[in-house]
Amino acid sequence: MKYNCNVLQLVLLCILFTGNIFSQIPDKQKEKQEEQSTLPTRIDFSKIFQQQKMEMTREEFDTWKEQRDRELFEKLTEPQALEKAIHPEEYLIGPGDVFSFNIWGALEKHVYLPVLPEGKLLIPSVGEIDAAGKTLAHVQKLVKEKSLESYENCRISLTLAALRYFRVHVAGEVKFPGTFIAQAVDRVSEMIVEAGGITERAWKGAIEIRHADSTKDVFNLAEFEMDGNISKDIYVQGGDVIHVPSVDLTKQYVYIEKDQEYAGVYQIRTSEKLIDFITRIRALKRNTDLSKIVVERKNNNKTEYISPFINPDSLSFDFTLQSGDHIILPSHYVYVKGAVRNPGAYPYVFNLTAKEYAGMAGGDYRAGNIKGVSVYHVRTGKTEKGADVIVEAGDVVNLPETFNLRLQNWVRIIPTITSLILAAKAAGFFGE
């Protein structure tokens, strides 16, 4: 009995062992199936189309075609923000515009038709018409006239379903020149903003828009910013090159000084008045003191300083600029320099002293000679010394170095100078 149990156990062990062996033998048929399942599935389009052709009824085919047109329309269109309804007499058609071709009556049909890259519009059962460059109203009229011959006893309409996208190039004095995607309802000013806005060297008064048909338009950005006349801000077209020119020093120009925000060179118009100029560049503000505006002008090698608004009257506002004038605007800043940690411009605060501005700029009284601080008054052109001097807008505060600091600076550079002399002597630059 004990022997029989041992035999039975041995038989069971053999069965388990052989099972493991066979389980580890690769099943070629199984591997082949797994390999086939990992391969990419090939789609036989001929069978699909054959099945559609054989099994689709006319109604099912029309439904499938409408679904396909609807999907095409969704791909070609996106929500668009418009200023107002598009005027059919003004909107010019171009490649990429999408129309809705609608038929009512004996036959009802709605098809979305894109304008092809060649500028043609394909009308079902009618043929093609040239649409690019024509107004929306003109294209609608052509389609109706030609479609009535093919679709009798039907009403036909053609509506603009989606606006096209195209490329516009922005170059010149803009922060990020390049190519941008636009629509036919976008304006020149919007494309300049897309390019990061203009630079400080830009001349706003003569921005060129070069069209693909070799025609040109000129846009005055400064006027548009001042009067907000939207009709002056023209629409862009496909392939336009918007060029923002720089200030041309061969033409009439003026300088602005003393004002950190507006300092620079500006182009002026012929016989432009001073008040119109500072208004155009937005330098005239509510707190601007006109009486402090000074024009530096050279006549016959002599420099004269003119204050047109010192006694405001009707003649003051007729003061005309000349090319080369230097306009000194009243500054809203105080400039601190010398023995301070952070020299530069600081906002003007009424009734502050030189000592307080020096402290604001990180003046170190151990390094700076606070007793010798000076204030240059722009309005009078005179310099006044003293820590308690009242500072006005545009003034320059200078904190000089102390004698000890100058001595320390000299002591620091003496080892360097000595090393240079010894090196030069070793190199033989000095004779024996």
Biggest sheet character: 5 strands, mixed
Write down the CATH class of the largest domain. Alpha Beta
CATH structural architecture of the largest domain: 2-Layer Sandwich
What shape does the CA trace take?
elongated
The protein's oligomeric status is single chain
**Level of helix content?**
25-40%
Strand content range: 15-25%
By CATH's scheme, which homologous superfamily of the largest domain applies?
Answer: wza like domain
Query: How many DSSP helices?
Result: 10
- The total number of structural domains is 4
Stretches with pLDDT under 50, minimum 5 residues: 1-5, 10-19, 21-26, 32-54
- Structural class, by secondary structure, is alpha+beta
Structure, described:
- The protein is an alpha+beta fold and 432 residues long.
- The chain has helices at residues 2-24, 28-38, 45-55, 58-76, 136-147, 188-194, 221-227, 274-280, 354-360, 403-426; strands spanning 98-105, 109-114, 120-123, 127-130, 154-162, 165-172, 178-183, 207-210, 216-219, 241-244, 253-257, 264-267, 294-299, 302-306, 326-328, 333-338, 344-347, 374-377, 382-385, 396-399.
- Strands 7-6-10-8-9 form a five-stranded mixed sheet, covered by helices on one side. It has a five-stranded mixed sheet with strand order 12-11-15-13-14, with no helix packed on it.
- The termini are far apart.
- 19% of the residues are buried.
